[in-house]
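Translate structure to sequence.
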């Protein structure tokens, strides 16, 4: 797998995991339960795709 394909795969996987965490938060909130763990997990995940996207852009447009 090329580096670009690997980055795209990792970004897609993180997006899927983030959507799952958002769904967990929604379900917990609707049930009136504490969603602190799920929201903390989502908050930690949000920086990862940005770093991967920056790396992907650097591969696509080397300076």
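Result:
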């Amino acid at each position: 797998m090329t580096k670009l394909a690997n980055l795209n795969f990792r970004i897609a996987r993180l997006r899927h995991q983030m959507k799952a965490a958002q769904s967990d938060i929604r379900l917990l909130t609707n049930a009136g339960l504490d969603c602190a763990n799920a929201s903390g997990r989502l908050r930690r995940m949000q920086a990862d795709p940005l770093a991967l996207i920056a790396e992907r852009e650097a591969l696509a447009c080397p300076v």
